[in-house]
Design goal:
By secondary structure, the chain is an alpha/beta fold. The protein contains nine helices and twelve strands. The strands form three sheets. The protein has a seven-stranded mixed sheet. The protein has a three-stranded mixed sheet with strand order 8-7-10, with helices on one face. The radius of gyration is 20 Å and the shape is globular.
């Protein structure tokens, strides 16, 4: 079937048979169904179209994202547990051996959640926390910030921890840092830190080889990244390296994932097959 025919078929199913969309997706490559959208390294900005046409465009993008999320979740659910474990180990070993990880002194990383089928980060976090920075002196180790969701309005903070005991379960049974430490002191927020982070290890539902990231729909990471990158620009700091961790089934062809004005692309992907550098900064640091 031609690309035009595939798009018409997808459109027809979307209008008449919403529950059958996943079937269409399994019959053709993602790139045959969605028109590639430009994805520069910086945060995507919108053109000066009318308000109505912009809304129409966004609605179409949101529909495409919904279709992709459904398909990727199905693929993740279908992964064999042993294969998933092997990929978890492969990704983490690649990170632990990478020069860009070893040289990092301050970094943000996510706490993996098995129920969300995120790439495991437990080995990476354990390695970092075995030799944390002391009293803010990064020469003695790495300084780690991990996410804490504050509300349902896409507000998430990255707070400093020094051991896994600093984490508690939230209402979704996801581990996150308590807002204060054992002595009752507020944990350092990366947005208030006097020094920049040089690496962020990011989760996601899907990624494509042009650096586009498909989240789970909450917008927490995109909102945080946008704010942090603005802070970096204001303070004239060096841009941190944004690295996403992915299972093999989560990586799409270049230009497949549709984007909105709030989406922040990544610099590199780490899959079980290795590191995929995307931006010039990643190519310089990942080779």
């Amino acid at each position: 079937m031609s690309r035009t025919g595939l798009r018409q078929k997808a459109k027809l199913v979307l209008m008449t048979q919403p529950d059958s969309i996943a079937t269409v997706l399994t019959q053709a490559p993602f790139c045959s169904l969605f028109n590639p959208l430009p994805a520069p390294r910086s945060i995507v900005t919108m053109t000066n179209n009318t308000h109505q046409s912009s809304n129409t465009h966004l609605e179409a993008v949101f529909k495409q994202k919904k279709i992709l999320r459904s398909s990727v979740r199905k693929a993740l659910k279908g992964m064999d547990p042993s294969s998933r474990s092997q990929e978890d180990n492969a990704v983490q070993n690649i990170i632990l051996e990478a020069p860009w990880f070893r040289s990092s002194q301050r970094l943000c990383a996510y706490i993996s959640c098995s129920s969300l089928r995120e790439v495991d980060t437990s080995k990476v976090l354990s390695e970092i926390l075995q030799n944390p920075a002391k009293d803010g002196h990064t020469q003695m180790g790495k300084r780690l910030y991990v996410p804490r969701v504050e509300d349902k309005n896409s507000y998430m903070r990255m707070l400093n921890i020094t051991h896994m005991d600093d984490l508690i379960s939230n209402s979704m049974n996801i581990l996150e840092p308590a807002p204060v430490d054992g002595d009752g002191n507020e944990r350092e927020d990366v947005m208030q830190a006097t020094d920049p982070v040089d690496l962020l290890l990011l989760p996601g539902l899907a990624f494509d080889k042009s650096g586009r990231r498909l989240g789970r729909g909450g917008g927490y990471y995109d909102a945080f990244l946008k704010n942090y990158l603005e802070l970096v620009k204001e303070r004239n700091w060096k841009q941190p390296l944004l690295v996403a961790l992915a299972y093999s089934v989560q990586i799409m062809d270049e230009g497949v994932i549709p984007v909105t004005p709030n989406d922040v692309p990544v610099d590199a992907l780490v899959s079980p097959a290795g590191v995929i550098p995307i931006t010039t900064a990643a190519e310089e640091r990942c080779h």
